[in-house]
Amino acid sequence: MNPDLSELLSSKPIYRAIVRAVIQKPYVERQELAGMVGGSEEELEAALSELAEKMVVLELASQADSSLESRVPKKVYLVNPEIEAQLRRLL
Predict the structure, then answer these.
(1) What CATH class is the domain 3-90?
(2) Burial class, 2, CB count within 10 angstroms (exposed 0-12 / middle 13-18 / buried 19+)
């Protein structure tokens, strides 16, 4: 088990909440993730940036559902499959 992951998840409660939410619902959109996790917009953005930088959560661009929104890709989140088993044990 990676001690860095354990330290990271225990450093801020929002990290654990984000990882838990993304494991429960892979390919979750950012707006829905914000509703699941709560917290301020700034805190969520900082936490997602940190988790993406450390390759814990992967941020993907996906096509929008309607043709009006198709020019703006939506962001979806997925837990890094290489460390998903470790993360599940830590949660």
Answers:
(1) mainly alpha
(2) exposed
1 pLDDT higher than 90: no
41-53 and 30-37 helices, crossing angle to 10°: 110
- What percent helix, strand, coil does the chain show, rounded to 5? 55, 15, 30
CA dist., res. 36 & res. 59, Å (int): 17
Q: Find the length of the chain.
A: 91
Domain limits, the chain: 3-90
**In whole angstroms, what is the distance from residue 70 CA to residue 50 CA?**
28
Per-residue model confidence as pLDDT tens digits over 29-86? 988 999 999 888 899 999 999 999 999 999 998 776 666 656 677 889 999 999 999 9
CA distances from residue 37 to 53, 63, 88 in whole angstroms, order as listed? 19, 23, 17
